[in-house]
Amino acid sequence: MRPIQMVDTKTQYHKIKPAVDQAVMEVMESTAFINGKAVQDFAADLSSYLGVKHTIPCANGTDALQIAMMALGLQPGDEIITPSFTYIATTEVIALLRLTPVFVEVDPKTFCIDPAAIEKAITPRTKAIVPVHLYGQAAPMEQIMEIAEKHGLYVIEDNAQAIGCEYIFENGTRQKTGTIGHIGATSFYPSKNLGAFGDGGAIFTNDDELAARMKMIANHGQSRQYYHDVVGCNSRLDSIQAAILGIKLKHLDEYASARQQAAAYYDQAFAGHPAITTPALAAYSSHVYHQYTILMEGVDREGLKKYLAEKGIPAMIYYPVPGHRQKMFEQFNVASLDLPVTDWLTQRVISLPIHTELDEEQLAYITSHILAYINQ
Ligand SMILES: *Cc1c(COP(=O)(O)O)cnc(C)c1O
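^ thats the input. predicted complex w/ pyridoxal-5'-phosphate below
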């Protein structure tokens, strides 16, 4: 049996090695390392895959979120509603820009932001909502967009974990996550569903004006060479990463189905177990399983992790400390916030190995050891 990893990027690479290596060699020969043809081609391919008008490549997913927020013309102290139960990058950029993160609850079944909690958190200073499509499943975008429209708010989707995920509207239309809000942001960090061989990110929008502003912000606020209209930053996807991502994009749907197959195996193995809640599938979304995260009831989670580690099975807690309990955000007096669902989840979640290369032998080994520990 191959060793079990949370993510197996090596086996995945070896399956497409000739195409990836050739694409990288072509960039090296071209020496167009920055903003070369590979970057433009990848951005165009990704736009057409997602069905979005503009894709603006940038250096990483955190920058993508930051540039999106910088483009909205917000003032210090403006409030951004976001889940507490997310990766720190989502909320850190809010504080970095001197905006105020307003942490709200998530749905205990889907782990995504709760629309009722959003409505309750709106004040005259609220300017934007940042839903996170956590673990690869969409937040309830239709409701979120309705709330945003009603209150005149921007929506920035954190799509770092859900590229390729499809939102299903009540009327049956389907749209890729990251293209529904005013702006979408994603990451090409190597372990993400569309992972580069280094850092990378992108921003999506159907709004021409926002696209122009974000392009300018990502490039030192430059409108034409050496004319800098706004304070921006330097955030670029390099051509080698773009060339690799261009190859991998062609496999993204096949990668999603490999993840879905692994998830189905887990679902079946754990079905009906009183101590395990498997991921709930929302009727309005597909699931691209960036993570396969279960909830454990009455199980010594640390004990299980240790037992699995001894058997060569990694497992991770995403995320053990929610935003409102991070020292970083003490300045916003959030420690006293009452977010019982978030706290409850942080104590019960555990993420199992999931990637495109898991085989049945590995899945049988993982599930049998988890069940052996829980049933002992
Ligand atoms: C990975 C991730 C990011 C940040 O992406 P980087 O490329 O690491 O900067 C942001 N939000 C979420 C939810 C993520 O999982």
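The domain at 252-375 is CATH 3.90.1150.10 (Aspartate Aminotransferase, domain 1).
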